[in-house]
Amino acid sequence: MKWVLAVLLLGICATTLAQDATARQPEPNTRVPQGVVRYAPSGFPDRIVASPAQDAATGFSVAWRTDARVSAPSLEIVVAGDSPDMGEPRSIKATSTPLKTENGEAHHHRADITGLQPDTLYAWRVQGDRTWSAWHHTRTAAVVTAPLTLLYFGDTQNKNVSLTTRVVREAMRAAPEARLALFAGDLVSGGDGEDDNEWGEWFEANEVLPTSLVVAPAPGNHEYFEEFEDTPQERRVLGAHWPVTFALPGNGVAQAKRTTYWFDYQDVRVVVIDGTSALDLGTAKAQAAWLDDVLAGNPHRWSIVLTHQPFFSPREGRDNVLLRQHLLPVIRKRKVDLVLQGHDHVYGRLKNEAPTPVFVVSVTGAKQYRLSDEARKTMRPVAEDTQLFQVLRFDGPRLRYEARTATGRLYDAFELVDSGTAGKHLVEHAEGRIEERTCRRAETLKGRADRCWE
Question: What is the domain range of residue 238?
Answer without folding.
Answer: 148-453
